[in-house]
Amino acid sequence: MVHGGHVAVVDTPGALQEALSEWLREADVVVIPTRTTSRDIEPLMRMRKAVFKHSRAKIVYVMNGWNRFKASRDFMEWFEGLAGDQTVVTLPQSEAFVLPTARPSRRR
After folding, report:
1. How many CA atoms lie within 13 A of 75 on its CB side?
2. Among 7, 27, 57, 86, which residue has the fewest nearby CB atoms (within 10 Å)?
3. In angstroms, rounded to a whole number, what is the distance separating the alpha carbons of residues 44 and 34?
4. Do the Cβ atoms of 24 and 51 come closer than 8 Å?
């Protein structure tokens, strides 16, 4: 625990604004959440580029919705090579939320 420290949490969309560079210069840690799909590569890479350009902060990547399917596994294999020694955390996709709710049919 750090006494007298300051914590600021800034939540941004994948489409970055120029003012974000000021926050990045002050950051000690930047958390970059993303999903493990090809559609998420562009905003992920844009955010990485901004962090590398404006900050020396430690990066923690949070992979939301990781699942057991090949596309997710391929994404993680590609990304872990890119992330190197940076922290990568996976949040598994809960299949219970994805599958439609089954309801018993009512026969008359």
Report:
1. 22
2. 7
3. 7
4. yes
